[in-house]
Amino acid sequence: MASEAVLKYLEDTNRPYSCADVTVNLRGAFSKTIIQKTLDALSEAGKIKCKLYGKQKVYAAIQLDNNEGPSDNEDYDAKIKEVTKDLEENRTNLKTIENRLKTLLATPTTESAKQQIEDVNKNVESMEKKIATLRDSVEVISAEEKKTILNQHDKYLREYRKRKRICSEMTDTVLEGYPKSKKNFLEELCIETDEAVDFKLTSQ
User: How far apart are CA 53 and CA 62, in angstroms?
Assistant: First the structure.
């Protein structure tokens, strides 16, 4: 039965444990719900001790040694506090890691960002050539057509700069844990920067 297994485990280990600890250490022999009910029942029956630290319940076997004194209890409480503190620190670290993982997963992948930048580069280059041709052409165009073309140019230019910034931020995030230099990282992924290919934008 669960009560016998839990009580024996606490008496044999002679250490304080939370419900989650007992569930894991019994290797899934019983569900967490059953373990929690069993621990509470044993505590109410006076067979084990239960102490509450914040929102965390910690359980331990009752020592039957008659030589146990106040100092033993104090050491026992200290161990419980230490285990509880470690548990809270691990939970905080886990939350930090989960938040960082969510941020990374929400960021476009390197390949996706690279393709987006290439597409924008092509659009910008095409618009640059078209504008240059129109400026040098003797053919007269209406003010409305010119305004439309220049607005499209500005739109692609803003989009290009936006995606370039996203790519740079994503690259900087990856480089925080990358053992080599930024140059090596870009070369391994075959990413070419504007500076490397001498690409320059021309404002209207």
Answer: 18
